[in-house]
Design a protein that fits this description.
This protein is mainly α. The protein is rod-shaped. Helix 1 (about 5-15) crosses helix 2. It has one domain (about 5-70). The relative contact order is 0.05. It is built from two helices and no strands.
Amino acid sequence: MIDIHELENELTYGTFASQQTVIDDFKIEQALKMIVNELSVVRSDALNATTQTQMIQSELEILKVEHKEALDI
């Protein structure tokens, strides 16, 4: 049977605890890398959306001018 106090000491001070810390640090590092990658995708999508919005606004301005010219004829 496992002694609870030994297990607690091992988890707190022993090699298991240090190995767990390394695993936790690795998981945190991997999660942060995933977040950075996702933010990069979101940034790229936002830049694309901004570019598309600017193109639409330019096209709208052209259509307004063409419409005004058509009304003037």
